[in-house]
Amino acid sequence: MPAERTRQHTTPVAAARRRRLRADRARQLADLLRHQILGGRFPDGVLPHEEVIGADYGATRNTVRQALGLLRAEQLVERQPGVGTVVVCQKFPHGLDRLMGLAETLHRHGRVTNEVRTISPVTAPAPVADRLRIPPRSEVLYIERLRRLDGAPLSLDLTYVPMRLGPALLDADLENTDVFRLIEEAAGQPLGTAEITLEAVNADAHSAAVLEAPRGTAVLMLERLTHLADGTPVDLEFIRFRGDRITMRGLLHRTV
Question: What counts of helices (H) and strands (E) characterise the chain?
């Protein structure tokens, strides 16, 4: 009887495991290949033949084809006749474990330039005034910039800065200088910490047009409230990154 009960319980578990593997194995392989692609594992931009991938990862040819199909749907790779599967989209690493401006973060990957679309004093919306710890209806400097890396649209940044720092930014070279550096110069002290929230959102029509991305496509939304070293909040930003051109990375430490 115990052996029979064991068989009765084992059979459904084994069947469920097989179903899970059938449903997940292409996605699992796509995750592994994506990591290899973004890590520069294929410097010539060409992935190995399907049979080689299958042998390396212990996957069937159908699984490999399904995994490559997922990566094609992400517009990360494409199939070129006579060549094979090639990488067509480069993603750039954006660290989450240090407080740096975009130009500082990506200086090894190209030149970051800023198209200043709007810069003007505005009355702070109530949530902005609350986050920046300024009186209700105070003026803030609102800046909207399109950030490009070697000319390619990368992010759309909406920034609110208290007006006590505003005049210094109004006269600054915002097209070629990160706001972080300008704030530190105007405040006379370094930045200290930042609170961040990262989520995926669908691009609205305006954001999609500015970023030259398909309407409704998902973008990475980074909300960041940055403080000076003395704890004073000085910069509230809403940054929309093109998800097909940026990847977020960080080194986290577990503390007890």
Answer: 8, 10
Reported as a single tens digit per residue, the pLDDT across 169-219 is 998 999 988 999 999 999 999 999 999 999 998 888 888 899 998 767 889
Backbone angles phi, psi at 209, to 5 degrees: -65, -45
157 closest CA partner among 122, 118, 130, 100: 118
For residues 200 and 221, give the distance between their C-alpha atoms in angstroms, rounded to a whole number. 6
Question: Considering only CA atoms, which of 109, 105, 104, 211 is closest in space to residue 157?
Answer: 211
Is residue 1 scored above 60 in pLDDT?
A: no
pLDDT of residue 174: 92
In angstroms, the Cα distances linking 248 to 42, 46, 71, 151, 242 are 20, 24, 18, 21, 12
5-63 pLDDT, tens per residue? 555 556 676 666 665 565 588 888 989 998 888 777 887 889 999 999 999 988 888 88
Distance of CA 138 to the CA centre of its chain: 32
**Which pair of structure tokens corresponds to residue 253?**
């430490």
Distances, alpha carbon 207 to alpha carbons 51, 103, 116, 145, 218, in Å: 41, 21, 14, 11, 11
* Residue 231 CB partners (closer than 8 Å, separation 6+): 192, 193
C-alpha span between 220 and 90 (Å, rounded): 16
Q: Which is nearest to 165 in space by CA: 85, 74, 236? A: 236
